[in-house]
Amino acid sequence: MQVSSLNEVKIYSLSAGRSLPEWLSDRKKRALQKKDVDIRRRIELIQDFEMPTVSTKIKVSRDGQYIMAVGTYKPRVRCFDTYQLSQKFERCLDSEVVTFEILSDDYSKIVFLQCGRFVEFHSQHGHYYKTRIPKFGRDFSYHYPSCDLYFVGASSEVYRLNLEQGRFLNSLQTEASESNVCDINPVHFLFAMGTAEGKVECWDPRTRNRVGLLDCALSSVTADTEIEGLPSISALKFDGALNMAVGTSTGQILLYDLRSSNPLIVKDHHYGLPIKSIQFQHQLDLIISADSRIIKMWNKDTGKIFTSMEPEHDINDVCLYPNSGMLMTANEAPKMNIYYIPVLGPAPKWCSFLDNLTEELEENPESTVYDDYKFVTRKDLENLGLAHLIGSSLLRAYMHGFFMDIRLYHKAKMMANPFAYEEYRREKIRQKIEETRAQRVQLKKLPKVNKELALKLIEEEGEEQQFSKKRKQKNLPSLLKDDRFKVMFENPDFQVDEQSEEFRLLNPLVSKISEKRKRKLKILEELEAQGQEEEEEPEGKASDAESSESSDDEKGWVEEVRKQRKLLRQEEKLKRQERLKEDQQTLLKPQFFEIKEGEEFRSFKDSAKKQKLMKKTLEDRLKLEEKLGTLNVSDTTVGSKQATFKLKKSEQQRKQQEAEKRHRQERKTLRRSASHLKSRRGRGRLFH
């Protein structure tokens, strides 16, 4: 029997464990039970409570004695007698059963709706009658006052079959193209059907008229829900005269009061799977809703989750045993699950021993369902080299990580770190030795870390204990014994550095405060001895004297702090001098730098200027270049800015330009001198 707990609600899985094959002889079964501990410890509440392949529907008779289930393959129905804790009978059918209904208090009258449009009636002895409906059926309900069966399915009509007259009556014409589910209120017998368009139509069987229409598809869309496509109605259940719960194909449950068209509460499963079953638990005001993956129990007034269950296989149907805490499920697996939740109610009378068993288990808690699994995060999987297993059946996603088998985890850890077990073993041995040492006579030993601080605390505690004994007060807890400060005396990282600047500046103040505290304790002891009150001043000592003494103390520790500061400055000066000596002693090695092609080295100052220029912002550089004349910024007619840059020239180009400039100036001077000579010669001829 497996035990799981969610929200402090214990869930006992009574069908956990391996089942023995039917073809084994009793002798071999007994031999297996002797050898295998799991088989010996399992609880087989009802013998052979399973189907050959898959179970689709499960129901309990009104008297609570019989549990009936249908499944495949081959299509069959099995009836289990709870008083005998075994199977009563099994009947094979011609086609698979869509759903069935127990009309009597026991198993004597049963109706089966089958896949091939057949409706089959069974009595106590077996098959009784078989008929057919015009279209494929999906669900039906029985109206007790008129003995009518209402069939809904792949049609807009609701077919009525009267069992008293033995004939079909006029069908109800609806606005829906198809209908999925239906139910009849047990108090006022209102007939409701859920359509493929996401609506619920309510009909009065007495007048055969529609009396109400609910648009559940529109109401199921809230701000938090993400819906793909139009939600259709997949589950429907009445609770009392006024409440009705509706489940959609997109995973929402809507709780309605029949007097209002708006839902009281909308609950989302967050899996996007169709709701398969809705049950009401009246003792705790819970709604039990299930899709193919999870069963959720939540409060119908607040919507708060009570607990939930995730079976190993997909769920087809859920059945709550009346007035008890037992829950049964039909699954996509041969075995049908039985759960017992003591919080919901007591065990049924035919298995009342479960109460005693669960009480013993609570007194002696054993391993829960998660003890055989290890919770690992994605980072743990990457460290173990098992990240490739994400998405496989070996890992089960849960919250922010995964559950994996503890044996697989240990194997992977051994391969990743082969010496982990040896380290763990050494640590355990050390812990055991320390535990044995703790049982011996303890001597007062100072811790390895912060010995001075521990000694100071011990002395202060001793003084305070003596004073509290005299005044009959309770002792304050010790810092050395407090778990919150335990690491401060164990971890070397918390060692107080007495040579640090902070400690040396604070130490005078701390020492003065401790001295003042000791003096105060002495004064209080004297007052107690003289029988005076604590508030009164000691005789022969005025308050002025006290204030003068406190001012003297302040002067004393201020001078001490100044002295420490002076020492710190001297030490810093000595350190700087030592560093300078070391720098002078070290020989400077020449460093070689490579100059880029096309550049010419002038001095280190130019490179420093370039580095400073590169550190400046683009705006500062543009302003500098504009001042130097290498950049010209002007406004255009369109309204934009135009920037013109002058590229810097290399040293060789600059020299060439200077030579050309000198050459041009020389030519100009030559031309001027030649023209001057010509003019002088012309003047001489004229004079002659």
From TrEMBL:
Pfam families to which the protein is assigned, alphabetical: Beta-prop_NOL10_N, NOL10_2nd, NUC153
Compositional bias of kind Polar residues: 634-643
GO cellular component terms listed in the entry, alphabetical order: 90S preribosome; small-subunit processome
Annotated ranges, domain NUC153: 482-508
InterPro entries (alphabetical): Beta-prop_NOL10_N, NOL10/Enp2, NOL10_2nd, NUC153, WD40/YVTN_repeat-like_dom_sf, WD40_repeat_dom_sf
Positions of region (Disordered): 528-557, 634-688
Domain called Nucleolar protein 10-like second: residue spans: 369-417
A Gene Ontology BP annotation from the UniProt entry: maturation of SSU-rRNA from tricistronic rRNA transcript (SSU-rRNA, 5.8S rRNA, LSU-rRNA)
Main localization of the protein described in the UniProt heading: nucleus
Composition bias, Basic and acidic residues: 648-663
Composition skew (Basic residues), residue ranges: 664-688
Compartment(s): Nucleus, Nucleolus
Domain named Nucleolar protein 10-like N-terminal: residues: 1-364
Keyword Coiled coil: yes
Keywords carried by this UniProt record: Coiled coil, Nucleus, Repeat, WD repeat
Protein's name according to its UniProt entry: Nucleolar protein 10
Provenance organism: Certhia brachydactyla
Source species taxonomy: Eukaryota, Metazoa, Chordata, Craniata, Vertebrata
